[in-house]
Amino acid sequence: MEVFFQTLVGGLGFGAVYALVAMGFSIVYRTMGLVNFAHGQVVMIGAYAASTFYMTAHVPFFISIPVAMVVTGLIGLVIERVLRPLENKDFDLMLIGTIGFGMVLESLATIIWGATGHAVPSPVDTEPLDVFGIRIRTYSIVVLAVAALATVALVLFLQRTKRGAAMQAVAMDHEAATAVGIHVGRSNAVAFAIGAGLAALAGALVAPMLYVNPTLGGSLGIKGFAAAILGGFGNIPGAVVGGLAIGVLDSYAAGRFQAYSELVVFLVFTVIIMIKPTGLFGERTVNRA
Amino acid sequence: MPRTATARLLLCATALAVATAGACSAPGSDSSSQESSDGPFKIAVVNAQSGQLSSLGQWEWKGAKLAADEWNAKGGIDGRTIELELFDDQGDPTVGTNIARKLSSEGFVAMIGTAESAVTVAMIPILRQAKIPNITSGQSPAIAEAGSPYAFYNGPTSNTYDESLARYLVDDKGHRKIALISNNGSYGKGERDAFTSALADRGITPVDDQVVTTDQKDFSAALTSIRQKAPDVLFVGAEEVAAGLIVKQARELGITATIAGAAPMGTPVYLETAGVTNAEGTVVSSPYLSNDTDEASRAFAEAYQRAHGEEAEMHGAKAYDGANIVFTALESSNGAGGAELAEAIRGTEYDGLLGDFDFDESGVGIHETSIGVITAGKLTAEPAS
Questions:
Q1: Cα of B45 to nearest chain A Cα, Å
Q2: pLDDT beneath 70, residues of chain A
Q3: CA distance B207 to chain A (A)
Q4: B6 is a domain residue
Q5: Given this model, what pLDDT does residue B37 score?
Q6: Domains contained in chain B, number
Q7: Does A105 touch chain B (CB under 8 A)?
Q8: Same domain for B120 and B207
Q9: Are residues B68 and B140 in the same domain?
Q10: Is the dihedral of CA B53, B54, B56, B61 positive or negative?
Q11: Which of A24-28, B15-19, B117-121, B335-339 has the lowest mean pLDDT?
Q12: Is the pLDDT of residue B6 over 60?
């Protein structure tokens, strides 16, 4: 029983991070129908940016996060601007373009910060809470809380604001949206910037839990992508559920199957997707390709 | 007219390509006679310069570079300079095998590296075929098991590390409740096997034996299971970063057992990743505990500091020893490569930073390690009993 709950707690801590990564994938996908394969690398840049401000400029950790989000938001805008001419013309090229951007970002990180990486001290330096023998890291609670806040904020933005409604409209039918005077390009740019901002949030939060180096984005990106698909690609609450599910699944598989855990996680994932191809909260909002 | 010109150009290019291909087709087969006239000795340093294992690779390169610079300053080997070339294997066995093929076609006499056992194991068959002696910083017994006469270690194998560790923990300190956690990479697996067998020799069965993946991030399940067994000692068999993450999470989950492990746990990367408080008291088995053990290590540390502007550590020292052994052997083989060089390396008795090298049939030169304990963020030697 103790193992069961402790594993759940551990899985949720990382699941919250996967959820944030998945939300970034989803917001871009639902708006543009595009999978941003550079997303994992943007997460990595976010982790570097936040930890660098935190460690070298001695800015408090929770101020360095918004700074990092601005940095990656700008990167998101650049990616969208460069790919914009391809919008509605060649989707395959856009996909390849995002993969290319991923490589560029990884190389840039190596040039700026070196290939070695650094460890980030935990900003919340209190003893873990002990609840009936289950140890809960205070930092994990912070991560879960931030992820929850980000989800609520994003859903409110999409449903309650004019800009958000415009993005929904573009997602549903971009030609009709253009006809009623919505600037599709701008809408896409906002989606990319938000996605990149979420990536920085995920990267910054995960930095003290892991070791920051230029290849950090790889596995986080894959898990986040799987989470987004599992929740129903393009669905924001779905991305959160998917992220937590992948995190928890990962932890249980690790306990049960040890060295074969990765295999089991993706097998389970494949089976779920075969039974329900649209993911748990399946609604395919976009199909533009 | 332009048509024929193009055709002729094409023909020339083809001829050139064939000629070059012919010239460097099989350098391994007769490299000893052909290459030994003059010009610099080409020696490859293959190590990860990117990825999670790149700190190792960069230390290795700095150590090897220092040795080569010192030899070149003294006039090289028989008047010929040493030319080191660095290859980035990214810690990836596939990249490693590609590099091995490249080395065999470009006339390298020897290779220094890699620091990652899995990569070295993958490269061995190609290097053996090309007759390129290689001195690795890997520790996995799998390298010796490959049985290549061209593969050498610049330090002890996991068997040696873990035998010393078991002797200290069980025989000296009397611990008997010992749990293991290791990852399933080449290094982690070697550590697990070696430590388990060292414990078995003492009639001890581990109270828990958890295996995790190399890419795993959350160790709650494995560590909670270990916590329930309340061991006195937790043995960690994983690379620097992975070991750091495991120990950090173990302490967060309230595991108070003494942490023990081999060389990776003595590095600054481990210390930073785990956090100084969490790493406190870690028992480390290592052939190179500090830059202050004797005259030679002090001199090395000073030269390293001067050359690279940073503090020396074990991996730099290993690569420095390894490089020096290769250069010494090249001198005694009169510049011959291939099988002659491999034999010369095996015959080299070298008083190095890690100890007195005396190679056996399996290519292992160092047969003992010392025990250190991390105290106040620094690895300090534990007096031998």
A1: 17
A2: 283-289
A3: 16
A4: no
A5: 61
A6: 2
A7: no
A8: no
A9: yes
A10: positive
A11: B15-19
A12: no
Question: Is the minimum CB–CB distance between A6 and chain B shorter than 8 Å?
Answer: yes
Does B167 share its domain with B281?
Answer: yes
Query: Coil, strand or helix: which one is B214?
Result: coil
Question: B29 pLDDT exceeds 70?
Answer: no
pLDDT: is A7 or B3 the higher one?
A7
Average pLDDT estimate for B50-60: 84
Q: Are B149 and B163 within one domain?
A: no
Chain A residue numbers touching B269 (CB-CB < 8 A):
119
Whether residues B69 and B151 fall in one domain: yes
Q: Is A121 touching B (CB cutoff 8 A)?
A: yes
End position of a domain, from candidates B286, B314, B332? B286
| Residue B25: predicted pLDDT | 39
- B217 lies in some domain: yes
Closest Cβ–Cβ partner in B58, B221, B269 for A254: B221
- Sign of the Cα torsion A27, A32, A33, A35 reads negative
B152, B297: one domain: yes
DSSP characters for B255-321? --SEEEESGGGGSHHHHHHH-HHHHTT-EEEES---TTSSHHHHHHHHHHHHHHSS---HHHHHHHH
Residue type at A172 in one-letter notation: M
Last residue of a domain, one of B235, B254, B286: B286
Span A223-263, pLDDT tens digits: 999 999 998 888 888 999 999 999 999 999 988 887 788 88
Domain assignment of residue B118, yes or no = yes
Instruction: Tell me the two tokens of residue A181.
Output: 């005077």
CA distance B4 to chain A (A): 39
Question: Which has the higher per-residue pLDDT, A31 or B232?
Answer: B232
Hey, is B233 helix, strand or coil? strand
Q: What is the pLDDT of residue A58?
A: 85
We report the CATH number of the domain holding residue B342 as: 3.40.50.2300
The more confident residue out of B379 and B2 is B379
The pLDDT tens digits of the residues spanning A78-109 come to: 998 998 888 777 778 888 999 999 999 998 99
B51 touches chain A (CB under 8 A): yes
User: Which residues, in sequence order, are CB contacts of A86 under 8 Å at separation 6+?
Assistant: A93, A94, A97
Question: Rounded to whole angstroms, how far apart are CA atoms A109 and A106?
Answer: 5
Q: Are residues B278 and B314 in the same domain?
A: no
Range of the domain at B190: 159-286
Is B20 contained in some domain?
no
Residue labelled with tokens 């290769």: B326
Query: Closest Cα partner for A21 from A254, A255, A236?
Result: A236
User: Does B47 reach chain A within 8 Å, measured CB to CB?
Assistant: no
Tokens, residue A154: 């994003």
Q: Is B272 on the interface with A (CB under 8 A)?
A: yes
What is the distance in angstroms between the Cα of A4 and the nearest Cα belonging to chain B? 8
Q: What is the ipTM of this complex?
A: 0.85
Do both B237 and B163 map to the same domain? yes
